[in-house]
Amino acid sequence: AGMAFSTVLAAGINIGILGLILNKKIQGIQWRKMFRCFIRCFNASLVMALVAWLTAGLLFPFIENAVPSKFAQMGALAIAIGAGALMYFMLAVSLKFPELREIKSALLRRR
Question: Residues with Cβ < 8 Å from 15, sequence gap 6 or more?
Answer without folding.
Answer: none
